[in-house]
Each structure stands twice: as structure tokens, then as C-alpha cells.
Amino acid sequence: MKEEVKTDSLIIELLKKISKSLEELNEKIDKLTEKAGSIEAKQKKIPVENLPLDAATLLSLPDHLRKTAIAICSLGEATAEEVAEETKRARAVESDYLNQLVALGYLKKRRIGKKVYFSIEEKKE
Amino acid sequence: MKTIAIHSYKGGTGKTSIAVNLAVIAAIKGKNVCILDYDFRAPSLQVVFRENPKLWLNDFLEGNINLQDALIELNNKYNFKGKLLAGFANPSPQALRGMMTKDRVWEMRALHKTLSAKRSLHQEMGIDILIFDTSPGMIYSSINALASSDLIFIVMKGDEYDLEGTKELINGLYDVLGKKTQIILNKIPLNYFSNEASEKLKASIQEKLGLPVIGLIPCDCNLLATGGKSIMAINQPHHPFVKALSNITDKIQLF
Fold it and tell me: B107 and A55: CB-CB below 8 Å?
């Protein structure tokens, strides 16, 4: 019995470690995608400025970005995870698409603690 | 919840009559319905529902009021089995002028407000069917409504102007937004219904546009004359116009 309890607590401990590592990995991926996005923008000489994500813009976006854009337009401000819940796509995919929209100048991005928030407008404090 | 935008290439196809009667039929059948007038160029829902609102959808989109304050509960007046809420567009010349001069940032906020209105109508207000009556053609308020919808009903009269224009809208708007789109043929001359001509017309439109025709409504001069004076689904429930829309209402949940 004691042996079983010990094994259970070991497994729980291990799962916690895995979960923490995954979170750290997610953060690193976010930072990498962010860097990649800004490098791509620089290479393509895309001006990163405040462009409104309005209906006309929606129509001009490629299909994969449009779905993300509609989700973030609906939420106003959200994490990649919340957008992924809306679009039913993977968080990592949405993180990439949201960063592309930031690089194109349509979204703003801010970090609060460990979480990254994307929004259609600069938040007024 | 199903969100439907009633749209067309040209004006005068009967969008508002269809939107109002679909909403009323669904409420009579026990659905909780909300209808929003997104035709800010030529608002007309306030005429057909005989309402004189103090607050408008314009105020909601400006960010001056909550969505609930922009809606009027019409159940007290009509006593339907389901709930019927309506949001009206302001028809005053100042409001019409104001809507003409909005910039792209304002339009972005309007899109956000429209999408979040859909969310709260579904999650907080228990609405089953949301209907947008829109302006014809490609204008901001209509695209905002279309982007917020699950289903688009294109209303067309079946003439060449409508046909060619609708083809362009399918390519440049409906397909791009990736929405389920269906056609309602309205104001079809009565002689089409005396033989197989109506089925031939339906098949020909379906082939030319590559979209399903879900309703074929005969033209009725009396109906044209009473436009805006009364709601057919209430006053003439057995009229062919109401019957055709009742069939479409039954199919909404299936789309």
C-alpha cells in the first residue's frame, strides 16, 4: 500500500515537471515565432504600423489568417490559447498566425507575466 | 444559435420583408429570435414594427450604450410563443450622414462590437436565431454582418442585373468569407408557377451561380402595395409568401 502511494506521488511529481517543461517550451516557441515574424517583416520590408483590422482587411487576408483575424476581432484581446478555442485549431498554429498578424501591423501584443495577449487595439491603461 | 444575414447585390429585392417575416415566423414557432437592422443607409425595421426607439444600434456601435439597451422586446405587443427582440438603425438625416463618414478604425470597432453582440445574444440572452437585415452590395456594415453570420441568404429577383452582380459577390465576398450561402428567388412572375417554368428557373439559377435555391416566392402586387404597412406572417399567415418563408424557417436548423 505504502509503495503504491509512493509511486502515485512520484507520477504526480513527474507530470508536474512535464507540464512545467511544456509551458517553458511554449514560451520559447512564442519568443522564437515573434523573432521570426519580425525578421520576415524586415526582409519583406513590411511597415509595422497600426493598421485597422476592419472588414475590408478581412477580405484581403489569406484564408488561414482570416479565420484567426475573425476570432481575435470577436474577442478583442486574447491569448493564442483562447483564439485556438474559437477556431478549433492548435494553439501553436494560432500563435504563429497571430504573430504574423502582428508583423503585418494589424494586431498589438503585450506580455503580462507569462501570458502573451494579442489585441486589435492598444489597451488604454 | 444560428446567425443569418439577409443580403443582396441590388436594392429592392425584398430583403427587409423576408427578414421580418422569417423572424416573426420563427418566433411564432417558439424560437427566441433577434432581428438587427444593419441597413444604416436606409433603415426600415422601425416602420414595419411601428416602433419609435429612444436608443439605436448606432449608439451601441459608437460604444455609448450596452447591447441590451439597444434592443426592444416585441413580445408584449405580439404575444408570440418565442421571444422576439429587435435592434433598430437610426433613420434621422444626422445619423445617416454620420454613418457615411466613419473611418476604418471605427469600422474595426463596429466589427468587434457586432461579433461580440452575437456572442452575448447566444450565451447570455438565450437567442436561437439571429437575423441581420443588411444594405445591398459591398459596404462595411453589411460585410460586418456577413462576417458575423453562419448562413447567408441572398435575395434576388432572377433578372440579369441581379444574376451578374450576384456572381461577382459570390466570388469576391461570400466565397471569401467561407459562409454557407443559399439563394431565395423573390418577386418571381406568377406565370412561372402555372407550369414547370419555376423549376426550370430554379435549376438554371442554381447552375449559373453554383449555389442552392431554397425558396421561390411569387410576385404579388398587393404585397408590394402593403410593404411596411403590415407583417404578412401575422395578418395573412396563409399567403404563399408566408408559406414559402415558413418552409425556409423549418430548414434553418438543418443548415
Answer: yes
